[in-house]
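[scheduler] slot 2 assigned
[scheduler] job type: sequence-to-structure, two independent chains
[scheduler] chain ordering preserved from manifest
[runner] begin chain α
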Amino acid sequence: MTLTGKLVTQTEIKSDGDLFHDMFRKPHRIYNICPDKVKAVDLHEGDWGTVGSVISWKYVHDGKEKTAKEIIEAVDDEKKSVTFKVIEGDLTELYKSFIFIVHVDAMGESNLVTWTLEYEKLNENVPDPTTIMDFLVIMTKDIETYHLQK
């Protein structure tokens, strides 16, 4: 059994792709949009939306409050992509490494949000992070609903 893995999912959204990309480049507004899922997003180092910045999250996953501290590894405004590497928090109890990549493809009236999770489990008993991916898809839909209502 392999300890490294990659999960990819795509969700079509009708809201503006630039707005969605900006939401994850500067995620400090997400807790206002998804208060049942995200309790806080704080900047620890750097500036919002810049490589090397460190962000901490308090979120609810599987009914439990959890934390994650991430460093922004890459931002590509042209390709509408942001890469986060988890450096502390609950995910580090199960995974040796964990990377989130969110990418938006503009396709006219609709856009495609692609989430990619790249991870290495601490051992073979650790499950693949499918419930984390489910969480991200639901959060994506919540953000879309928020933008469509504006």
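[runner] end chain α
[runner] begin chain β
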Amino acid sequence: MIHHQVIPMKYDNVAQINDIAGLEQQCKQLDSACLKADLEHLTKEDGDHGLLCYHNGQLVGLLSWYPSEGTTGSINAVVHPQYRRQGVLRSLLERAREDVRPLGIHRLSYRVPQSHPAGMAAVQAFGAAYDRSEHAMKLQNDASAKQSQTVFSSGLDLTAAEPEDLEFMIACSSAAFGDPEDWTRDYFRHTDEPSRPTYVIRKENEPVGLIRVNVINDSTGFIHNFCILPARQGEKLGRAALTLMVHRLLEQGYTDIRLSVVTENERALSLYRSVGFDVTTEYKYFIGPI
């Protein structure tokens, strides 16, 4: 067991940001797994919370977290390969638990790359159970968005959500994803922030779906909560709406456009690929108690 110091990260601390970038680069060189520090989430004033573990002045571990779905804390961690199995992750997690308990968070969700069995063993040792697997996808070919003349003549449009759209958003999301409306209402309340705009998908002015974008930074946007009313599915509205959203993001200068999809959802995976997205990494998610 090494002696280490755990401190909170400051989003605008240049030295800490450089240390994190260096740790991520060292992991890439020494480890075949795709461990990402998600630095873009940590360098926003209202972004993820970061905890740093130093040993003799060297950053050897990072844990970031953010509240998700009200009572869940989403965890991402990176530990230097030469300092694993030495209590680094456990020390970071103990401090994270202290930070999240006062917020009413009573369970933790861990994200682990498919190619990282040591990480999966670690979270299972913390009492977490497998929840789901997701493909991380990134826009690799924007040809379909740039050649979207048919989309603009289809009567489909995206409009920024207004307060009066909330009930439709709740009903649509609940119906599409199978979540209770009370839970969905609480989710939208917790994720109502300027950096996460919501768009209502309209067909000839009638609302038929919704799509949201988590703006990570000036060049990166993460598409999520994309759904079409079950009664309107099968009308090829999904591909048109996603193409339109991608086209709009490209026009706004976003060069890094991402999304994720549950691995079992072959229909959605096919749709995203048809618009130009490719799988970059597969992640497994585990959920456990505080």
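[runner] end chain β
[qc] chain β: The first strand starts at residue 5 and ends at 8.
[scheduler] slot 2 released
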